[in-house]
3-oxoacyl-[acyl-carrier-protein] reductase (Halanaeroarchaeum sulfurireducens), 248 residues
Amino acid sequence: MVSLPDSVAVITGAASGMGKAMAHEFADEGASVVVVDVDEDGAAAVATEIADGGGDAMAVYGDVTDTDSVESVVEESVEEFGTIDILCNNAGILDDFTPAGEASDDLWNAVIDVNLNGPFHMTRAALPVLQEGNEEGVVINTASIAGKVAGGGGAAYTTSKHGLIGFTKQLSHDYGPDIRANAVCPGAVATGMTEDMIEDLEAMTEGTPAGRYAKPEEIARVVRYLASDEASFVHGTAVNVDGGWLVD
């Protein structure tokens, strides 16, 4: 098992929200962090925050829909830190709860491209590095409760997250025990993508056992657990971090 203080974690969509929280969580544990995002300034700011706090991080531009960009992320990560131990496929976009009959081809393709094709591209590129040596590589995909039930997003978003959970299971089946793949399924989370939806988040979570929406740090702590040796026997699962949204 790779111990977190000795690990290298690559996190996509890490310039803000849950990805940013993950970057700080791993850095606080002593990991070297690669902050990946299409928002170069945002990624650089997160890497600087980590460095200012005594951590080790680098910012890398990465477009998960572009295979050349993804290959560059892997190459730059290995060049800087020597390896990749943990890959967090966190980059994602919403679809504004758009039903199938109202979804344009552009919306559908964009959501599938980022949310489902992106993790595939990143994982495929990183697999040879994750499989190197005698230590177990870790892949953690940010799915959603929308990957388990309808109503957590629109047609494209729900489809993409269902697919991502399936991808996670197949990774575990095909590459375990060399690769330990799992997913997290957040419910309502206050992030940069949802900052205009706070009233909606409050309404959606009013009847849940937690009675509130989550902070990004609460998701990041579960991701950190899944990456740690404390979760050494957790393979191919999709962990709900939803305040009990799906309890019924």
Summary: The chain has one domain: 4-186+216-241. The chain has a mean pLDDT of 94.
